Amino acid sequence: MSNYDQMWKELGLDLPNHEGLLKFLGEAYQGIYLTQKNRPAGMGYFDFVISEVHGLRIKEIVDARKAGKKGIGTFCVYVPEELVLAANGIYIGLCAGAEVGTPQAEQYLPRNTCALIKAFFGFKLANLCPYGEVTDLIVGETTCDGKKKAYEAFNDITGKMHIMDLPNTKSAEGRKLWRAEVARLKDKLEELTGVKITPEKLAEAMKIVNDKRRALQRLAALRAADPTPISGLDALLINQIAFYDDPIRFTDMLNKLCDELDGRVKEKVGVVPAGAPRVLVSGSPMAIPNWKLHHLLETSGAAVVGEESCVGARNYRALTPEKFAGLDDALDKIAERYLTIDCACFTPNDERIENIVKMRDELKVDGIVHYALQFCTLYTSESFKVAKELKEFPFLRVETDYTMEDAGQLKTRIEAFLEMVRNRRK
To answer: Is residue 254 a contact partner of residue 219, using CB atoms and an 8 Å limit?
Structure first.
């Protein structure tokens, strides 16, 4: 019996199936992560976090809720973390990256819904994820039609949804709408928590969130070294953990890891040989435990050196200005900061191309792999524009889901792509 069984039972989890899920995840982690060679010692903390993914962190949140805090679940980087923390809330990323509970999810959703939406439904309906159960409010956003309609059904199931209406354009009218949505979320959080969001609380929250982003930016910059001091798999894991770990502790542990990586760069210690093909992964978010593409790329000889993704650069690229003149100005700055995110839901979305090119050049990338979840119309459609704008630069378009059924086919395509990259260097 686990030390957490009583807690999981009280949260309503299906204990036998949950035990099977944790066993599967542990074996997958062992085979994908712990078999990597020459990993930085500082990854030990993040290994521990994963070993306690449904344990210690859930207990921390349960204990915090008993002490009066509220758990705020989110599905997207457009939900302002600063507001949640300023209201004395706990920010909890809920997106799921594994195929679970699909038959139950398809009682509410079309079969051709993307895997990410099916996954968060499936985990809830199969009673396998404690994170959704420790939320008092779940904040959704209208980034795609699939999510918009799914949230209606999810609210019927949970009764916890608050939806932020994200505009389709970054026009003056769109910015006005989004600013009103940020204020509406502030009001909702104050009503839920009983905590008044003040300029002082916002200033403190902004610093906490920006410090986390600065640490992630530091990690991203260190990956520009050749040889890269950390695998793309490990960097992806860190970015995934950033959405649910305690932000202050996470920042401290990541900066300690970056200190170690600084030393590795100076000593030219890498996880792959210098000169390995350097790949940027671009496109759809990769929620935990979606590690398939990085694993296939790196076991094929590539060094994944960056993620142009919501679980990656879109999450930490921009900081929120920490100096402001009163509450209204602070909300203005928060709204503007989140509209710098270049999600494919916006039209036009030219800044995304600019950011991809900038990452390509800063990270000394040899090839770009554009990843889109199957049935994700936004990123699948935008992949054609990205390919066109990059012209003759090596580019591989991948559309897949969470299963391993296409792993062999993908590995063959990846190996051919990497061979083309190597030949181009000659």
So the answer is: yes
